[in-house]
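seq:
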Amino acid sequence: TGGTLEQVKNDILTVSLRRACRLDEQKNWPHNQAEFTLMVEQGKTRLGLIVQEVSKTVQNLLAEWQNAQKKLATMKAYANAYKDMNEQIASLTPKGFIVATPYTQLIHYPRYFKAIGLRCDKLKNGVERDAQLMRDMLPLLQAWQRALSEQRSSAAGMDPRWLDFRWLLEELRVGLFAQELRTPMPISVKRLHKVLGQMAVV
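struct:
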C-alpha cells in the first residue's frame, strides 16, 4: 500500500502536520511571516495528539487492508467479483494514497476494507446475489469511470461533485455488500442515480 515502513511513517507525519496547521482548509494558508509563525506555534500545540490519532487511523486501515487482501487471495475462482474487488482496492490505494486522500475520507478506509472482507465471506454461499448487486452498480461505476477519464484531461481539473460521487460509490459498496457495517448516510443505487440526474448526467 503506502510503501515501506519508513514511507508510512513519513506519510503519517505529513498528514499530521497538515492537520495540525489546518492546511487542508484553504482559508487558513498564511499570507505573511506573522501568520506563518502563528500557524506554526498553534500547530505545535496540537501536533502530539494529532500524530496519535493519524497513526491509529493508518494502523487500522493497514490491518484491515491486509485482512481483505488475505481473504481476496482465496476468491480467484469467482473471477468477476475477484476482479471488481481488486480494482476497488487499487483505486483506493494508489502510490502515496495516505497523503493524497482527504483525511475526512481516510478515516473511513478501515470500514471500506472490512466491507471487502465481509463480501468475500458471503461470496461462497451467495454468488448469484453478488453478481446481481454488481449488475445493479455497474451503470454508476461506468458513469464515474467516464467522468474520470474525461476530466483528467480537462484543464479545469476534477469537478468536486464527481469527487463526492466517487466516495458515495464506496459507501454504496458497503451498503450493498456489507450492510451490517452501516454507512454515515442512507445509501442506495436509486439514490446515486438521482445524484447523477441532478448533475445532468444520465
